[in-house]
Amino acid sequence: MIPVWAQLLYLLGAVCFILALKGLSGPKTARNGNLIGAFAAVLACALPFFYADLDHIPLILAAIAVGTIGGVYGARTVQMTQMPQMVALFNGVGGGAAALVALLELHEIVEVGSHVEKFTLVATAFTIFVGSVSFAGSIVTFAKLQELMTSRPVIFPGLPIVFGGGLVAAVVLSVLEVREPDLTLGIVLALIGLLMGVLLVLPVGGADVPIVISLLNAFTGLTVAAGGYVLSNALLLVAGTLVGASGTFLTLLMAKAMGRSVANILFGALKGGSTLGAGEASDRPVKSAGPEDVAIMLAYAERVIIVPGYGLAVAQAQHTLRELVDLLTSRGAEVDYAIHPVAGRMPGHMNVLLAEAQVPYEQLIEMDDINDEFKDADVVLVVGANDVVNPAARNTPSAPIYGMPILNADHAKQVVFLKRSMRPGFAGIENELLFEPGTTLLFGDAKDSLGKVLSAVKGL
Prior knowledge:
It contains 18 helices and 6 strands. The protein is of the alpha/beta class. Strand 2, helix 15 (349-356) and strand 3 form a beta-alpha-beta unit.
């Protein structure tokens, strides 16, 4: 029985998690929100040591030490471009931990042989299966984003049959588990969950992978909530529900930003509708220029819109870009950053990257608010982005990104692309905007190219 004082502290932790989520909704309050959430997490981990009769305390402390070291190391060393991969790993660990805890609880139920409510057994089976799905799926998303495996969809004949059979087997095993708890059945259920997690993510390719990370994050939240019910822990129940709800909303919003349904994102490859991932470089002729030519275009432009993308993050060119924007602004130009909802690889990824370079948040304009202004722009500078300005999303029904809302860069008077090569974007298809008469390409590393453009603008 949890004492009243501990329950009150758990309630405080739950309130802190809610406040943390609220704080994370805005750039000005995000740091405080993060600290509040960290405090609640520490409180939740520390409380059982003061009221519960714990066994294996040295092992628990060792696990906490390993987790702390891993978390601090990851926070200090992982680059901003690798944040989605780290989110995938942390999310997978959460789902796997929930599944293991549920298996341990199932073992105790079987050993004691006492009467347990059916709903508790339902929650246990749910946590084992969905937690295993989240763990295995998150590992595959990490491998795809880290390029440890191909980012293209991986499908094989009979995949839908195997996937459907796995779901049926999981339901049957869960029903048997509820009727008569058995640890062996629980382990088999976990193994099926691992298989289903792999099969769920393998057909997903290219730009769709971050959306699946968000979906798996929602899965992990639901398993933690169910685990909280099994353990009679209100804090886990509240925290898991928050993660599950926010992850679900984020998944739906990201899918809307891609102009597609979640079902199409998950299973579109089976019908040829998934984004492809890596693609071949085009050999079609384009109009290219040097840094001096681009500098002249920018120096004489009154309205400039910057479209940042993942390539900007890879090149770590955000500081140089900010210097260039500051220089153009000081000379009277009106300059804003156009932020697509899925710029980078996760929502908010580009905002954080630019905030790191101390770009004023007022200059970051969301897609819906800036799209009508592209027609008045003298120059649109696209830095490391591709799919979010690809007109195929509007004009080519056969394109995997067809229907995705895009930035109207093609409506501007002139477009300048900073690209390393003619390889396609993350969706794996060509961008016809690259071949338009009003488009100029500046090839090279974004940081190096922007540095040369900046120097050339200063010399004008």
